[in-house]
UniProtKB/TrEMBL annotation, chain A:
The chain crosses the membrane at residues 60-82, 102-125, 152-175, 187-204. This is DUF2975 domain-containing protein. Keywords: Membrane, Transmembrane, Transmembrane helix. It comes from the Bacteria. The lineage of its organism: Bacteria, Pseudomonadati, Pseudomonadota, Alphaproteobacteria, Caulobacterales. The keyword Membrane applies.
From TrEMBL, chain B:
PROSITE patterns: HTH_CROC1 (PS50943). GO terms for molecular function: DNA binding. This is Helix-turn-helix transcriptional regulator. CDD domains: HTH_XRE. The lineage of its organism: Bacteria, Pseudomonadati, Pseudomonadota, Alphaproteobacteria, Caulobacterales. InterPro entries: Cro/C1-type_HTH (IPR001387), Lambda_DNA-bd_dom_sf (IPR010982). Gene3D superfamilies: lambda repressor-like DNA-binding domains (1.10.260.40). Residues 7-62 form the HTH cro/C1-type domain. It comes from Brevundimonas mediterranea.
Length: 218, 79
């Protein structure tokens, strides 16, 4: 099946012709027979559907993340005032364990990074919850969902990029020789996931445009 | 937009209220007022058919084209 329309980009308001949507070669019968029950085994949108179950799960995860982030923030504030002496942490690398003095800077860096990490995921879950609220109401192409998806993409980019940078920093400065330095290859998955979220945001923008148009069609 | 819906005039001529028309056509009053105030983006033929049937008029009696300075289809301006 062709994935791109023959003319690209489509003009605004131009309907996709069903010609390119119909596959040239229909799927073989055994494949159709296998995928037929997969079509709609459950209700995905609306009240009492799978999305409302997922929304409850997101609510729980959000509250948990909120608690964790709050706790970490408290620890971070406390770490500024706690006197540190004679505390060592053991860093285990491939060449065996190693004693490393726990400096104030190391502690603050670790706590700050963990707070930012969980805080970022809390922000993502916050947007996801709101998106799922609209799904539960059966209105997936709410105009606000575009902004929320872009927020998710941006937060994901910042969090995953921050993790990459922090790991590089730890490998180079804080615990040299214990951790391997980060390669660019480890950035591939985050980049792809962020790009996919941004593309999805544009898909939702198109959906929101169609929804607005159909609302104003009497 | 340069297309205007003259629902007001036709309604006055027929001495019909918007609510009554909405009942007879099967369109909500909110949607009819969207049509009346010119906010509508498109009209379904089925709606036009019902309007003409109930108001006993032609589509040309309901719609007029009034070219003006800002008559371009400002799709991007609203988005």
């Amino acid at each position: 099946m062709r994935l791109l329309p023959p003319r690209h980009p489509l003009k605004r308001g131009e309907a996709l012709s069903p010609k390119w949507l119909t596959p040239k070669w229909p799927a073989p019968r055994w494949l159709r027979a296998m995928t037929a029950p997969l079509k709609a085994p459950f209700r995905a949108l609306g009240p009492g559907s799978v999305s409302s179950v997922l929304k409850v799960a997101l609510d729980v995860a959000y509250i948990l993340l909120w608690l964790i982030t709050g706790l970490l923030l408290l620890l971070l504030v406390a770490a500024v005032f706690i006197p540190l002496d004679n505390v060592n942490i053991t860093v285990s690398g491939e060449s065996g364990g190693r004693q490393l003095p726990l400096t104030r800077m190391l502690l603050l860096f670790g706590l700050g990074a963990a707070t930012a990490y969980f805080g970022g995921f809390m922000l993502i879950l916050r947007s996801l919850r709101r998106i799922f609220r609209t799904l539960t109401m059966g209105d997936p192409f709410h105009p606000d969902n575009v902004r929320r998806l872009r927020q998710i993409g941006l937060t994901l980019a910042v969090v995953t990029g921050g993790v990459w940078l922090a790991q590089g920093f730890v490998a180079a400065r804080l615990a040299p020789g214990v951790m391997d330095p980060q390669g660019l290859g480890e950035l591939l998955t985050p980049i792809f996931s962020v790009l996919i979220v941004f593309v999805l945001a544009e898909v939702f923008r198109e959906g929101a445009r169609l929804r607005r148009e159909s609302e104003l069609t009497i | 937009m340069a297309i205007r819906v003259q629902l007001d005039r036709v309604l006055v001529e027929r001495r019909m209220s918007l609510t009554e028309l909405a009942d007879r056509v099967g369109v909500t009053v909110a949607n009819l007022s969207i049509l009346k105030t010119g906010k509508a983006r498109a009209v379904r033929f089925s709606t036009l058919d019902a309007l003409c049937r109930e108001l006993d008029c032609q589509p040309g009696d309901l719609l007029v084209h009034e070219p003006g300075p800002g008559d371009a289809f400002d799709d991007d301006a609203e988005a």
